[in-house]
Amino acid sequence: MDINAIPLFSTLKSRLGYLSQRQTLISQNVANVNSPGFVGKDLKPFVIPDKSSTAGRLQLTGANAAVGPARTAAGHMQGTVPSTGGQGKPQNAPDSETRLDGNKVVLEEQMMKMTDARMNYDAAVTFYQKSLGLLRMASRAPGR
């Protein structure tokens, strides 16, 4: 059975991808805190992808199409191509202040966003690990 077929795990995987992408954007904002005219970027809030529509899935075609692992023997598990888990493209998200040089990044606000993203990431990883532990326990033979 593919673990991504379980909705809980596919949602957690998407959430972890989103939080990873958000941490990257926040770190870029912090790195450019002294760049004149720089406007910080952020992602839209996380939305659980709807499996019935293609809006929540990565759509690549042609030369940009993702290549997945091949199943070469009947005993092998079917591989999947990991999704980025992103929630769209980064958008401008100026902070509460604008400096005279046009920079719209406030270091304190970025640090608060980073702390929030890190706490959410840690919680999602812990939930993922606990869920895997429950699956392992359920799959064991009785009395073991």
Question: Would you give an account of this structure?
Answer:
By secondary structure, this protein is mostly helical. Helices cover 40% and strands 3% of the residues. It is built from two helices and two strands. It has helices spanning 7-31, 107-139, and strands at residues 41-42, 91-92. The protein has a two-stranded antiparallel sheet with strand order 1-2. Helix 1 packs antiparallel against helix 2 (107-139). It is elongated. The chain starts with 6 loop residues before the first helix and ends in a 5-residue tail after the last helix. Mean pLDDT is 80; it is low at 53-67 and 81-85.
Major beta sheet, strand line-up: 1-2
Low-confidence stretches: 53-67, 81-85
Tally of alpha and pi helices? 2
* Cα shape: elongated
Name the beta content range: under 5%
The major pleated sheet works out as: 2 strands, antiparallel
Helices and strands, in order, run as HEEH
Q: Which structural class best describes the helix and strand composition?
A: mainly alpha
Approximate helicity band: 40-55%
Mean pLDDT: 80
Total strands:
2
Calculate Rg over CA atoms: 20 Å
| Distance between the ends | 22 Å
